[in-house]
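anyone seen this seq b4? input:
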Amino acid sequence: MKHLKLVLCVFAFPFILSCSSDSDSDEIIETPSEKPAGPKYLPLNVEVGEIPMKDPTASSNTGTHRAPITFLSDLSNFYLNYIYEEKEEGEMYYYYNREVWTADNDGKGRWTVGDSGQYGWPENAAPTTSFPENGKIPVTWYAYANYDVKGDNVGFQVNDNDPYIPFTVEESSTSQKDLLVSEKTDTWDSCKGNMYFLFRHVCSALKFHIKKATNVKERNITVTEVKLHNVKNHGQFYFKSKSWASLSGAGYYTLLSSTNAFNLSSTEYRAMYAGTLSQDTENAYLFMLPQSLSAWNPAAGPVTSTTGAYLELNFIMDGQNLTGYVPFQGTFEQGYKHNVNINLGKNSLYHADGSKIISE
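predicted toks r here
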């Protein structure tokens, strides 16, 4: 890109990580009439698609689908950021939009970026009469959907030119959203602003089922509430590696709520639902950051002191109200559906102190 360095730094200031002058004596003096205008953008024409979440029990895991792209619901908007770079006089400059851009669905399969489409392809990465080679500058676009910019979810971040988004999974299973991401690199000369984002699912989707084991089939057991504890619920998703890092937290998730209580069968598994999920069984998934969970070991100490994962159950057994705990473990992969079957019996149900609830 053939720009004077000082002019480039001034005009691109909101979108540049660093810039420097050739000399400490260089000065830029502006009067109000000389103050540069804000960044300019060329129009974008955006379409989207989805890589479906993989289901190990399905006969086929392939296929790409046009919008609607969210997992089991329609997508109304997503966020969009870009990065491009230029090396000039031995120094590398990185340009990106610091603010969060929102792309809104117009209801006709097209997406408007910003109010009335005021955002788009960065003009300095597009050809001009003086600098036609600018059209060959690659611009990498990063899109992410079902992401509320609040709390720890602060939006697009760049660490040593390695972009990522921090993400915390909602602890209310009825408020969760499945995080979708997409990355696309292109030049203006190649695409003329026509962008297609293929979104992928980067969480794990879990559906929980429960029954009573044959060794307690004579007992009458009604489960009224089930919670999953000690799940890492915060992490950073890195776009380049398409992987998670810095997982943390010890979240808990309600898998079954009292309004959805039911009596356990000893012959078939029944799906568990929290809150309104009983109204739509297809939405009865818990979204979790991909991770391996190690189970609480009842022999090693009480459940109150463990970092291992466990299920907490409120249930009625033969007319008695009880609270029990079940060690839980598993490896849950990115972009996969997982069916989790809980077989509740003498050897899996414990008091908080680690002793068995059914000892006979």
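The radius of gyration is 26 Å. The longest helix spans residues 5-11. kinda curious what u guys think
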